Amino acid sequence: MILGCHVNFTNEQLLGSAKQALSYGANTFMFYTGAPQNTVRKELNRELTLKAHALMKENHIDIKNVICHAPYIVNLANNKDEEKWQFSIQFLKQELKRCQTLGVSYIVVHPGSAVGIERAIALQNISDALNFIIEEDAPMILLETMAGKGTELGCTLEEIKIILDNVFSKNIGVCLDTCHLNDAGYDIQDFDKILDEVDLLIGLGRVHCIHLNDSKNDLATHKDRHENLGLGTIGFDALYQVVTNEKLKDVPKILETPYVERAFPPYKFEIESLKTGTFNPNLIEDIVEFYK
Ligand code: FE
Ligand code: FE
Ligand code: ZN
Predict the structure, then answer these.
(1) What pLDDT is attached to residue 90?
(2) Who's near 218: CB < 8 A, 6+ residues apart?
(3) Mean pLDDT of 186-206
């Protein structure tokens, strides 16, 4: 099981992220190179990076399974404001460089939102932007499947396919988010059916990351509100089937479930219940008790 969670990129940078992941019992992790909400980024410290790699090696975290996530405000879909669109492109190019410096192979990117332009044109904008950004020997961008909140693109596998088909490079893949899939109308209870569709349209080999989240909302509600494992509409059993699916056994699974009471990270307990394959009905109480 390649299992991890979202962790912070602290003052200790990747070293801090790795330490946090290990404290949760994870064997991989996902980080943002700064705040998820903005594009302010500090210079990378080589010594901390080397220490992070040493710590990961010692603890059997394979850097190949470590995932970066681009900030939310990057929007490749809308080029009404040419300057903003160019900023998103340039910023992602720099993020790829940062990933390369850190030795990280994958960065998850949200396809973007149309906001006021026609969907088909917005999809083409994403591909155009990606054609500027992607380099053959750079880390791979993974397009994340979205819930379809507002004018979000990439909430169907067909839309993801359209974007990919118009990208010239093959150095691009996909990240499946279980909460987003649910909210977009894909039923996780029949995950193999979803994987068949992914395989048919995109190719299963292009899936390099799974975001493992329960959802606060029903199927096809286009909401995008993550829930702790087993406490949402998807449920523990269906999510456990995702984690243990043979076809995805080499793909990292990353938890992005909410902090309990906005203060306590749930990951140590969620990872534990996935390792043992048993739902913890006292999840919230146990987390509060542990951190309080
Ligand atoms: Fe995401
Ligand atoms: Fe996600
Ligand atoms: Zn989400």
Answers:
(1) 97
(2) 233
(3) 98
Alpha carbon of residue 187 to chain centroid: 19
Beta-carbon count within 10 A of 95 CB: 25
Show the tokens assigned to 132: 């500027």
Distance (Å) from CA 177 to ligand 2 centroid: 5
Output b/e per residue, 27-53; b: 16+ Cβ within 10 A.
bbbbbbbbeeeebebeeeeeebbebbb
CB 270 within 8 A of CB 229: yes
Average pLDDT over residues 219-248: 98
| Ramachandran area for residue 8 (φ above 0: left; ψ -120 to 50: alpha; else beta) | beta
Distance from the CA of 239 to the center of ligand 1, in angstroms? 18
What pLDDT does 101 receive?
98
Mean pLDDT of 259-282: 97
Per-residue tokens: 96: 């790829």
In 3-state terms, what secondary structure has residue 211?
Answer: strand
Please give all residues whose CB falls under 5 A of ion ligand 3, grouped by chain where several chains appear. 224
The answer to whether the beta carbons of residues 171 and 215 sit under 8 Å apart is no
The Cα 107–Cα 148 span in angstroms is 21
* Residue of 11, 36, 8 lying closest to 24 (CA atoms): 8
CA of 10 to the centre of ligand 1 (A): 19
Give me the pLDDT at residue 138, please: 96
Q: Whose structure tokens read 């996902």?
A: 30
43: Cα separation from own chain's centroid: 23
C-alpha to C-alpha distance for 221 and 109, rounded to whole angstroms: 22
C-alpha span between 53 and 83 (Å, rounded): 37
Q: Could you tell me the distance, in angstroms and rounded to a whole number, from the CA of residue 71 to the centre of ligand 1?
A: 9
The 10s digit of each residue's pLDDT in 233-244 is 999 999 999 999
Q: Which ligand is nearest to the CA of 32?
A: 1
Place of tokens 């569709």: 197
